[in-house]
Write a structure and sequence with these properties.
By secondary structure, the chain is α+β, with helices and mostly antiparallel strands. It has one domain: Factor Xa Inhibitor, CATH 4.10.410. It has two helices and four strands; from the N terminus they run ββαββα. The strands form two sheets. A two-stranded antiparallel ribbon has the order 1-2. It is elongated and about 30 Å long.
Length: 86
């Protein structure tokens, strides 16, 4: 699981799709692992909107991240949708 992330936007070709990733040198397998991450707000109280893939409803959804620790699958709705989780 990953905690808070620095945003270094890179665009690369992944399985025939252009995918925007927030970490350098990330491959397709790691992107799909993010689809399975369960969001965790963490112990802080900053109330920052982040996103995750809901595998039951098969859609990207927002959740409130506290700003430290926890689990943040995606930084933006666009990032979640572009990874085409299923």
């Amino acid at each position: 699981m990953w905690s808070s992330r620095n945003v270094f936007v890179n665009v690369f070709l992944c399985a025939g799709l252009i995918v925007i990733c927030t970490r350098c040198k990330q491959d397709c397998e790691l992107i799909m692992m993010e689809c399975e991450l369960i969001p965790d707000s963490g112990p802080c109280e900053a109330a920052i909107t982040k996103y995750y893939f809901d595998s039951v409803d098969e859609v990207c959804k927002a959740f409130v991240w506290g700003g430290c620790e926890g689990t943040v699958p995606f930084d933006s709705m666009e990032e979640c949708q572009q990874c085409e989780c299923r």
